[in-house]
Amino acid sequence: MTTLTATITDSAVPRTRRRSVRLTLLGSGAALTLALPYLLDSYWLFLASTLGVNFIAAAALNVLQGNAGQFSLGNAAFLAVGSYSGAFLWVQQGFPLPVVFVGVAIAGALAGLIVGLPALRLHGIYLLMSSLAAHFIVTFVASKYQVANFGVAGVPYKAPGLGPLSQDRSKDVYYLIVVVAAVVALLLWNLLRSAFGRALVGVRDRDVAAAACGIAVGRTKLVVWSITSSIVAVAGLLQAMSLGTASIEFYTLGLAISFVAMTLIGGNGSLLGSFVGAIFVTGTPEVISRIAKASGASPFGDSIWSHPFELQRIAYGAAIVLFILLEPDGLVGLGRKLVRLVRRMQRPRREAT
Amino acid sequence: MTEFLNAVVNGIGLGAVYGLVAVGIALLFKSTGLLNFAHGILMTTGALMASAMVSGGRSFWTAAAIAIAVTGLIGGLIHLSVIRPLATRGLFAGVMVTIGLSEVIHGILSIHYGPGQRLLPPPIKVSQIEVFGGARISSTLLLCGGVVLLAVGALALLFRFTLLGVQLRGAAVNPQLATGFGANLAVIFTIAWVVAAALGATAGILLGTLSVIELTLGDFALRAFTALIVGGADSIPGALVGGLVVGVVELLSGTYLGSEYRVVATMALLLVFLVARPTGLFGSGTLRRV
Amino acid sequence: MSLLEVEGVEVSYSSGATALRGVSLAVPEAGRIAVIGPNGAGKTSLTRLLTGVLRPYRGRLVTGSVRFDGRDLARMSPGQLIRAGISHVPEGRGIIPTLSVEDNVRLVLAAIPRRNRPTLDQALGVYPILLERRKAMAGLLSGGQQQMLAIARALATKPRLLIADELSLGLAPITVRDLVDDLHRRSVDEGTAVVLVEQSATTALRFSQYTYLLDMGLIVHEEDSATLLESGAAHEFFVGGGHDLAPEEPVGSK
After folding, report:
1. CA-wise closest residue to A214 among A237, A195, A236
2. Which of A50, A152, C60, C92 is deepest in the core (most CB within 10 A)?
3. How is chain A split into domains, by residue range?
4. H helices of C157-211, where?
5. What is the pLDDT along chain A (353 residues), one digit of tens a residue?
6. How far is CA C1 from its chain centroid?
7. C203 and C99, same structural domain?
8. Looking at chain B, which residue has its C-alpha nearest residue A116?
9. How far apart are CA C75 and CA C204, in angstroms?
10. What is the C-alpha separation between C124 and C138, in angstroms, rounded?
């Protein structure tokens, strides 16, 4: 295993060899991802779909927070924007799927623009509070819409139906998510490496200096908010398709906080970090509920495992606290440090100064 | 007309509660620069503790005193254990930690006390008092008004006239400078946290006597953020005024728009102030940029 | 033995930057010393070291010793240093703009034990204008008045050693001259040792008895001020010098 990591990370190994190893890994990963629905049962496939959705949202959030330095508790609200505009466009109006996706993306972008307007003048804590206000206002509007058109039970989302490519519901949703995730990842990857990406870092680190360099700080902030909330809205739509329903009780502040945890745990500002964070947030409820079942605790019992939902909450909260205190760059940051340690141990003669 | 007056008078009463909550948050913001998202959960902790003790047989006042003291200590512990280590990392890290901490404590409280609702008896026997114009207000709300006025007064005196107050005010603007002139931040900030947490527990207990105690009690604190911003985040008297405004707005919107509009109305008010006047009505607007 | 003895101090920050690379200097009892250097020379790090505030700025003393009256300074907190008799006028005045003039002074009074504590009137009385404008918000004062406030605050603790960091920054030359003359007079009358840490050579040279030239974290020259002034070597140092190396502001402090 060490030789494999060394091969990927060690700069002494010739570049072409490194690249071919990396491509092989990427290729096998992609193949595995595509083959997954045939390897897993529907429950695990659902988990994989959830992971995909979480990754998409986390990637967007990471750009917002890690690269542009704008902090938000509005994630649940944007997810709701996605699922409820989807409810209108798809469930109610019956537009074809591509149109629905575009419509949801636009709705998300508009919402992001509006929420991002205070970002032009506010910083840090004030921005956090305005995203808090946005959360309540958006969820309120969504709940009014839901009750008026669908009742208290929620919006029923039927299977997406991919036409001739269609198989069954969970497979269809899964592939949809994979495609969107790949597109989003590519989009964000390129964005961060472009001039725009550098402008983002400027906006994050030194507002005033960035403006002096001719970067349109205001416009950059708004663009970031629009793009990222647009992506989160699409994630919300996919999530509703995966769950089969959109219901206002789902979009809580706790949900928004779990997304913040996701970016912190994975590692601010990196796509890999978003993936790692998504694994944590998708996996934790699973692990907890399995342990709870295994321990035989009844839901009304006295043991600590009778309260899986609360344990989940504690897990997210504790993760936020611990990572901020100990490793603000998240698991990815931790991983990088480990890799450096391994390299140093392997080649003491080539110690980096 | 009575309906309007009722809404306003009770709004002021509710506003006194909001004011007390906001004052606790403002205290910390004014002295440490930190916006404490865990204030709500500290309120809930105080209320639950007091309620459990009352069920266990203690008198209301004893239970309240103990709960307030213990919650104050918890506040001090929180500062020393997880906030202080972040001193050089910037304020935002501290805010995020309070968010995470809030979730952790929420989960612990939920497991320990269970999800059900609890009650606290009203502290004063005569429950309703009639005020001018035929409106009626609960005696507990009056008590709350008294408590918040006392708190605002005491804190104003503390900040203006004591050396501790000067150190806190200085440390909020420039902690390194304050340290350079002899302020022991570990000590003074811990004191600020203990007092703020105790105020939170007081607010939680009073709120608990007005309605039921459940784990969502802390959501009240989120709406108190509006009071904080309206008043001006670093003004203690401003927090009280902001609280009154929020209380009145909430009840008026409840009366004229419908009770489901109460929360969102306060949030809209928050947004309006954040965009139009982030320093609030009385804030000085020169705190550290976070 | 000197009042203050700095020997071979090396100061670095958590960002990795090394600000002082082995600096030694001495301040005699009631002496007047100047430390002159360009931007980035390490002046502020030296001041922070001497006034106990390296840690809040994420700096630390790697090696070397600092002794004040024979006592080891490095382990003392700012409060202890103030009580021991070291006082400072920070770079940029170091006043809290939203506090009133008198509150800015009260900030330091808190560090002095009650029996030694001067009254507010005494502390402000050092400069009459401060008594006049005692309730005004410090941020509204002119640059010169703010500097007076900073000096008054430092003098309030009846120090044996006063360290002034970049007194001249942002002030009109005539204001600087008046302030420095006043400091000179006080130093002579009360026996207070003064260290002027400056970018501007002329003022410091005229004020002090002995001068150290600091550049890139090292003392590159030291001499009697009078001789240095005559020889003009200091000016050469400045015209040619000025290396921007170790940042004095640690990364991430903003």
Report:
1. A195
2. A50
3. 1-39, 42-250, 252-353
4. 173-190, 201-207
5. 445 555 555 555 667 777 787 788 878 888 887 877 777 787 888 889 999 999 999 888 888 876 666 678 888 999 999 999 998 888 888 888 888 899 999 999 998 888 877 777 776 778 888 889 999 999 999 999 888 888 888 888 877 766 666 777 778 888 888 888 989 888 888 887 777 777 776 666 655 565 566 556 677 778 888 898 999 999 999 999 888 888 888 899 889 988 888 888 887 667 888 888 899 989 998 888 888 888 776 767 667 777 888 888 899 999 889 988 888 888 888 888 888 888 888 876 555 54
6. 21
7. no
8. B275
9. 30
10. 13
C13 bridge partner residues? C59
> What is the rounded distance in angstroms from the CA atom of residue A305 to the CA atom of residue A290?
10
Distance CA B55, CA B119 (A): 9
Residue matched to tokens 């959830």: A50
Chain C residues in contact with B235 (beta carbon < 8 A): none
Q: Is C63 helix (H, G, I), strand (E, B) or coil?
A: strand
As to burial, measured by CB atoms within 10 angstroms (0-12 exposed, 13-18 middle, 19+ buried), residue C235 is middle
Q: What whole-number distance in Å separates Cα of residue A319 and Cα of residue B100? A: 8
Q: Which residues, 6+ apart, have CB-to-CB distance to B59 below 8 Å?
A: none
Residue at B45: amino acid letter: T
DSSP-assigned beta bridge partners for residue C203: none
Calculate the CA dihedral of residues B219, B221, B224, B228 and round it to 10 degrees: -140
Provide CATH code, domain B2-276.
1.10.3470
Instruction: Give the closest-approach CA distance of C67 to chain B in angstroms.
Output: 19
Beta carbons of B180 and C51 less than 8 Å apart: yes
Amino acid at B58: R
Number of domains in chain C: 2
Taken in order B84, B283, A260, B174, the sign of the CA dihedral is negative
Write the residue in B164, B170, B176 that is nearest to C57 by C-beta: B176
> Residue A315 corresponds to which tokens in the numbers above?
């897990």
* Average pLDDT of every residue of chain C: 85
Nearest to A259 by CA among A116, A129, A75: A75
Nearest beta carbon to residue B229 from set A129, A264, A311: A129
The minimal CB distance from A257 to the residues B99, B271, B290 is found for: B99
- Quick count: other Cβ atoms within 10 Å of Cβ C123? 22
Determine the pLDDT at residue A67.
Answer: 63
SS3 call for B35: coil
Range of the domain at C127: 94-158
Considering only alpha carbons, which residue of chain B is nearest residue A328? B93
Q: Do C90 and B177 touch (CB under 8 A)?
A: yes
Contacts of A171 (CB under 8 A, 6+ apart): A37, A45
- The answer to whether residue C112 scores a pLDDT higher than 60 is yes
Closest CA of chain B from A119, distance in Å: 9
Q: Is the dihedral of CA B25, B27, B29, B33 positive or negative?
A: negative
CA gap B165, B155 in Å, rounded: 9
Alpha-carbon distance of A298 to B260, in angstroms, equals 35
Q: Does residue C172 sit in the same domain as residue C234?
A: yes
Q: Could you read off the pLDDT of C115-146 as tens digits, one per residue?
A: 888 888 888 888 888 999 999 999 899 988 99
Closest B-chain CA to A259? B100
Amino acid C129 reads I
B252-288: burial string, b at 16+ Cβ within 10 Å, e else: bbbbeeeeebbbbbbbbbbbebbbeebbbbbbbeebe
Least Cα separation, residue B176 to chain C (angstroms): 6
Q: Measured on CA atoms in the order B193, B197, B199, B200, is the torsion positive or negative?
A: positive
Query: A307 to chain B: which residues are within 8 Å by CB?
Result: 107, 110-111
